Amino acid sequence: MTDLADLADVGRDLRRGGYSRHGFDRVELELREWFTEEARRRGLDVRPDRNGNLWAWWGAPGPGAVVTGSHLDSVPGGGAFDGPLGVVSALQAVDLLRAGGFEPAKPLAIVVFVEEEGGRFGVACLGSRLMTGAITPEAAARLTDADGVTFGEAAHAAGFDPLRMGRDEPALAHVGAFVELHVEQGRGLDVPVGLASSILAHGRWRYTFTGEGNHAGATLMEDRRDPMLPAAQLVVAARRAARDGARATVGRIAPNPGGTNVIASSVDVWLDARADDEPHTREVVERITSAARRAAADEGCEVRVAEESWGGTVLFDPALMADVRRAIGEDTPALPTGAGHDAGILAAHVPTAMLFVRNPTGVSHAPAEFAEADDCAAGVAALAATLEHLASA
Ligand code: HGY
Ligand code: MN
Ligand code: MN
Ligand code: MN
């Protein structure tokens, strides 16, 4: 909690509440510096990879490494725990292991992935996607933030060469196991610490509705081609289409030009859709897209749809989960989650598991996100026991 308190003033968003910390922005760079100092203070060897992620090594980097970590960025107006809890807990777990005189037989590393939330450049888990080849460096470099700065430009300004980004075979070959600790993001856990069993399939889509910009007072209702109409109907269609455990959310919408007395000429709407598997998710999105196309046609508007990111269902590694349970208790519950994580990207390439810390309110991606100090301490103890078990001879 002291470490989290260290970060409490970095990146506060006074307008939205909570924190706004985004990949390679001033705030995230400050947090990366904080992490680098904290890791170095512990004698860890901090090395950025070529995709903008930070690695802190206990022992020489090499195959079979036991890796933990998370991210330091947030959604716009996010909470204090989503991301930083996993990083802080990793540092604290190292302290606990050191205090107990533990000598790892395998290399141990803490990783901080860049732009996990996609809050700035739109694609979540950008650092882990680049590292695993789930996105090409060319596509990543072209992603643009709200001010028109590309990821390539931001990476370059932060000291990384966007042309050298992309699938990092040596880095992947080093990871023997990855265990990410994270605050649980629903109300799924009624004990302090649990495991994740799976992550829903999920993706992001951008709908651009185009109509005719015009005057809010002078334009008769029957003369309008207002793209806000189909945009609004998409929101309603999303609520109706997400059934049987699926989730569909419109949390971001951008009318152009965005004036109270202006009929917009175009409106961008971002859809986040998730469900148990790919066919179910695609079916939900297709239903929403059909409704959006019908609504656009009714209003004399055009609509363009672009898939901005996609990730299939993730099942965490049963053998690694069994190992974690041996370290922290056979009765540790495992629960599915609707939230995405870098661990979900890595799971397709290396044995991966997640530890969850209880979330008493079920709130996340909002300023009210919270975890009890005692539960966080239990998370650190569980992570330390896990690392000790996995990194022993
Ligand atoms: O959106 C998500 O589920 C994640 O927290 N990046
Ligand atoms: Mn998140
Ligand atoms: Mn997170
Ligand atoms: Mn006027």
Question: Describe it for me?
Answer:
- The protein has 393 residues and is α/β, with parallel strands linked by helices.
- It has 2 domains: 278 residues, 3-Layer(aba) Sandwich (Aminopeptidase), CATH 3.40.630.10; 111 residues, Alpha-Beta Plaits (2-Layer Sandwich), CATH 3.30.70.
- Helices cover 34% and strands 24% of the residues.
- The protein contains 12 helices and 15 strands.
- The strands form 3 sheets. Strands 1, 2, 3, 4, 5, 6, 13, 14 and 15 form a 9-stranded mixed sheet that branches. The chain has a 4-stranded antiparallel sheet with strand order 9-11-7-12, with helices on one face.
- Helix 3 links the parallel strand 3 and strand 4.
- Helix 3 packs across helix 12, helix 8 runs antiparallel to helix 9 and helix 10 packs across helix 12.
- 49% of the residues are buried.
- One manganese (II) ion binds next to loops.
